[in-house]
Amino acid sequence: MIFGTSLLSTAYLPPIEYFVAIANSGRVEIECGEMYQKQSYRTRCHINGANGLLVLTLPVLRSAAKGEESSHKIPVAQLKIDYSKPWLLQHKRALEAAYMSSPFFEYYMDDLYAVLDSGEESLLAMNTRLVHTISELIGIQTPIVMSDGNFIAPGSDLLQERGISDFRDSIHPKKPALLMERLKMNKPYWQVFTNKQGFVPNLSVLDLLFNEGPNAISYLESL
User: Fold this and answer.
1) Per residue in 94-107, pLDDT tens?
2) What is the DSSP letter of 217?
3) Model's pTM, two decimal places?
4) What span, in angstroms and rounded, lies between the C-alpha atoms of 107 and 120?
5) C-alpha distance from residue 94 to each of 100, 119, 128 (Å)
6) How far apart are CA 11 and CA 19, in angstroms?
7) What is the pLDDT of residues 27-67, one digit of tens each?
8) Largest CA-CA distance found in the chain, in angstroms, rounded
9) Tally of domains within the chain
10) Residues in the chain with pLDDT < 50?
11) Domain limits at 78?
12) In whole angstroms, what is the distance from residue 202 CA to residue 48 CA?
């Protein structure tokens, strides 16, 4: 264990770096007091298909709270998933096209689809259920809980006083995976399209799970 308590933002089918933080922490808190941020892992994930990188986006209702003009001005805990868009079918088709030939897709897909098919209204609830399910499938034992809802700004002295490692802003699709670089964990593993495209790092953790199966836990834990 490297970190005591780690603080993470909610994320949809998060990247490998996110689960590196979980696997190497004694405890994880998921932030539920922050405002929603667009173009982040909160509503999107990256997978690799036959033609390259694919971004799967979970749509949210733009007027999730009374009196609010748009989704990025409201607390993430109030965001609702927009089921008027065919995102679920699109995401399943993309996952199947990308990973049907991977060694462990069929072994894990039923557990993941059970969560995706649940009709969960809340973005935070859907994401949290997926993180718990994926952690269980990988074999991660780290307790994962919701924050108390009292938002602490990044860089606050209070985080250091409480011994909290804050990854809310650093794990972001537009930023390098600095945590993995720090822990020297940017190591390749076999991927479906390795022969065609070479190794693509820090995709959704599903890429690691479907390709490595029970070995995923060893990949995530720092030596």
Assistant:
1) 999 999 999 999 99
2) H
3) 0.94
4) 23
5) 10, 19, 22
6) 11
7) 999 999 999 999 999 999 999 999 999 999 999 997 644 45
8) 52
9) 1
10) 64-66, 68-69
11) 3-220
12) 10
Q: Considering only CA atoms, which of 37, 45, 191, 192 is closest in space to residue 131? A: 45
Query: What is the SS3 assignment for 139-170?
Result: CCCCCEEECCCCCCCCCCHHHHHCCEEECCCC
Give the whole-angstrom CA distance, residue 222 versus residue 1: 8
136 in the Ramachandran plot: left (φ > 0), alpha (ψ -120 to 50) or beta? alpha
Pair of tokens at residue 35: 């405002």
Distance (Å, rounded) from C-alpha 170 to C-alpha 175? 7
Strand order in the sheet with 3-9: 144-146, 25-31, 3-9, 164-166
> What is the distance between the alpha carbons of residues 11 and 131, in angstroms, rounded to a whole number?
8
Decide: residue 177, CB within 10 A, 0-12 exposed, 13-18 middle, 19+ buried: buried
Residues listed for the chain:
223
Residues 19 and 219: beta-carbon distance below 8 Å: no
